[in-house]
Amino acid sequence: MSRAYSLERAALLKILLHAAKYPTGSVNGSLAPMLETALVQVEAYAQLQGLQVLGYYHANERLNDAELGPVARRIADRIQQRTPPACAVLVDNEKLRLFCRGEQVDVLSLFLREGSRGWSRATANNAGKLAIRGGGLAPDAFLASHGKGVHEQLCDFDDHLNDIRKDWTNKKLALAAS
C-alpha cells in the first residue's frame, strides 16, 4: 500500500526555524510536554480549520543522530492510535547543515509505522513518500528568515504554556516561504 504525505513550504520552514530556535536541544513538534493537552488543542484547532493531524515532527539534539528515538516514537504512536495513517518526520541535522550551506537537499526523513515492527524510515520498499508542495524550500528562504531572527519569534506549545498570550499556531509569523 502506497502512502504519500505532503507539506506546505511554510510548514517546512516552520519546522526548520523551530529546530534553529533550539540548536542544542531536541524539538518535538508542538506536542511534547503535555501530550494529551496539546493533542486535544491541536486536534480541535485542526478540525476548526478543516484539517486533520496526520503526523508529528522531531529534531534530535545531536548533529549525527538521524534516528527516531524512544520519546519521538511514543509520541508518534499516540498520534497513530488516533489517526492510523499518521507518519513521523525527522529533521536530518547533517542534511540541515548542508542545507544551511546552500545545498538543495531533502532535510526531512519520513518514518512510517510498520505493524508490530514499529516505526521505520520510509523507503521504496514500504512505498512511503514525503513531498513538499510548491516544489520544496530553497535554502536562501530559510537563511533569510533565520537571518531576520524569525526563529526567535516562533512560539511552540511550551512557550504557550509558559505564557498563554503566545500563539502556538504562529498565525502572525511572517514566513517568506517562497
TrEMBL record:
One Pfam family, please name it.
UPF0172
The source's domain of life comes to: Eukaryota
InterPro entries given for it? EMC8/9
Return the GO cellular component terms, semicolon-separated.
Answer: EMC complex
Q: This protein is called what? A: MPN domain-containing protein
Instruction: List the top taxonomic levels of the source.
Output: Eukaryota, Viridiplantae, Chlorophyta, core chlorophytes, Trebouxiophyceae
